[in-house]
Amino acid sequence: MNEQNTLIEKISTLRRERNAVILAHNYVSADIQAIADFCGDSLELSIKAAQTDAKMLVVCGVRFMAETAKILSPRATVVMVRSDAGCPMADMVDPDELKAYKAANPDTLLIAYVNTTAEVKALVDICCTSGNAEKIVSSIPADKKIMFLPDRNLGSNLINKLNRPMELWHGCCPVHDAVTVEMINAMREKFPRAQILVHPECRPEVVKAADQALSTGAMLNYVTASSHDEFVIGTESGILYRMMQANPGKKFYLLQPEILCADMKKLTLADVERALRTGKDEVVLSDEIIRAAESSIREMLSVK
Ligand code: SF4
């Protein structure tokens, strides 16, 4: 038996023994997605974390995802696969700066993208993900001032689409912010029949140049339902695993091979096995943070 199969067998045994559920984000490597109990985008993982009664949740993703799972499933032991897998965008909101903003703008409603730390979620009114951001922003009365954080690109794209003014925080995802219109034009020329899909964390000019801007979950549904059979994908390469699995007859090209999230790609199968075996990198949050952050996430989940 090769090393990979041995690891997979150990993971299966430990998962059973620990009554654990393995949740994997669409951006982690294909071998991890293949052994996960559930794969999805941030919204789908949040919903799954809220529904499970497993004793242990092993979160294959970055820190804010594991924190969200803990907030929604506080009785479970939530374990990170790599404690050093963070999200540079989430770190672009300093809680003290946000507290100062809140004090100076008491009438402004704060919407936080789910890519934020638990401490920041505890300070805001409602969360959103790229999969439900339009619905969340549209649910806020038109006369209410909004601060959208941390992603200025997602915020700008929402302003353009919904024609709804909002104040924007000064954050972005370095992975998607690096996508350019030139990359789109080059692939358009190379694959003229292909639909070009990007993530709404890309810059507004990139979103304008693409055919669709969709969350990873929505991208998967789109390519599966579409009558097109060629797609250029402008998001993290990990998404290709599920796209290709669900659509064996269709062709997928990455917009750029180097659209990689270095933090997501830190995780390996050996790390998953270690996380299950040792439970070492458990997410610990105070009851106060859990209560406050849960209210902004539940507020999001309650918007129909
Ligand atoms: S892809 Fe961007 S937003 Fe997602 S975890 Fe990586 S840095 Fe953060």
* Average predicted local confidence, pLDDT: 95
What is the level 1 CATH name of the largest domain? Alpha Beta
How much strand content do the residues show? 15-25%
The stretches of 5 or more residues where confidence is low (pLDDT under 50) are none
CATH architecture of the largest domain: 3-Layer(aba) Sandwich
CATH homologous superfamily annotation of the largest domain: NadA-like
- Annotation field: number of helices: 15
The CATH topology of the largest domain turns out to be Rossmann fold
Write up what this structure looks like.
The chain has three domains: 3-85 and 264-285, 3-Layer(aba) Sandwich (Rossmann fold), CATH 3.40.50; 90-173 and 292-302, NadA-like (Rossmann fold, 3-Layer(aba) Sandwich); 179-254, Rossmann fold (3-Layer(aba) Sandwich). The chain contains 15 helices and twelve strands. It has helices spanning 3-18, 30-35, 42-51, 63-72, 95-104, 118-121, 133-138, 152-162, 174-177, 181-190, 204-209, 216-225, 239-246, 269-278, 287-302, and strands at residues 20-25, 38-40, 56-60, 77-80, 109-113, 126-128, 146-149, 167-168, 195-198, 212-213, 230-234, 251-254. The longest helix has 16 residues, at 3-18. The mean pLDDT is 95. Helix 3 (42-51) packs parallel to helix 4 and helix 12 runs parallel beside helix 13. The chain is globular, with a radius of gyration of 19 Å. Strand 3 (56-60), helix 4 and strand 4 (77-80) form a beta-alpha-beta unit. With 304 residues, the chain is an alpha/beta fold. The strands form three sheets. It has a four-stranded parallel β-sheet, sandwiched between helices. Strands 6-5-7-8 form a four-stranded parallel β-sheet. A four-stranded parallel β-sheet has the order 10-9-11-12, with helices on both faces. Iron/sulfur cluster binds at residues 62, 87-89, 115, 173-175, 236, 261, 263-264.
